[in-house]
Write a structure and sequence with these properties.
Blueprint (H helix, E strand, L loop, with lengths): L1 H22 L12 E8 L11 H4 L6 E7 L4 E7 L13 H18 L3 E7 L3 E8 L2 H12 L10 H11 L5 E6 L7 H10 L1 E8 L1 H4 L6 E6 L4 E6 L5 H22 L3 E6 L5 H16 L2
Parallel strand pairs: 3-4, 3-6, 6-7, 7-10
Antiparallel strand pairs: 1-2, 4-5, 8-9
Amino acid sequence: MNQLIKKLRRYEITMRKVANSHLQGDHQSIFKGAGLEFDDLRPYQYGDDIRTIEWKVSAKGHGTFVKTFKEDKDQAVYILLDISGSQDIGSKERKKIDLGREIAGVLTLAGIHEGSQVGLISYSDEKEKIILPGKGSRQAVKIIKGIFNHKNRSLGTDLYGMFTFCLNLIKKRSVIIVISDFIDENYEKPLKALANKHDLVVLQMTDPIESALPSLGIIPVFDKEGGKTTWVNTAFGGFSRKISTSFSSDRVKLKDFCKKNQINYLQIDTQQDIVLPLMELFKLRNKTMKRG
């Protein structure tokens, strides 16, 4: 566990160094903008985010006004980790679940380092591990143990159930970072509700094999979630191409959904280094919230 924490800490320190060099002092917090609460109103200025316009006040005819915000120091950060069976795909060196755990661990350390309250919700098709938000190094170790040492009770997937559970559990506006491959259906309604209520970040884990399945003839395919083996002819009817197209289409749909609902979205591949993609995401978040 000590070696693991040292490894994650190195990632976190590297991420912070990259942030400082890229953002030239504007970077106050990796989670900046997440912990914001209403402060005051001021006249609209060119370049302001239209989402901050206070329409009721502006409609009175005395000009257009926008809401300003200040950081809420007590806002919580929840790491929402999908640990279903479909996450167990990838090479021996690194599967999607390994990538997700690494990112969850790094963001936990980053949040704790900044003085945030950090919590963990691990989910399959049922509640797996719940750690309510807290501060300090003991909380960081507790969460990292919860991420890396937990043994699944189930391998099924239920994103609808996961997001609905979070809606019922988390009452106060929080930062929610969802780490999943999003291989499921009909989860959009509660995900949109989460985005309306909280500051939502979606991190989609992917692996090259999902979009580049080789034509191997008839092979056994084991469904880890269902516990069944099915024989599939990968050379028949452009099977590999159809699989690739399906995965690509689903990713585009999720990305478009996130853009439409003002959700920060990032796709991360198992073969990528996690530092630069994460920094691009939080760089974007800082720019967006700076307008307020």
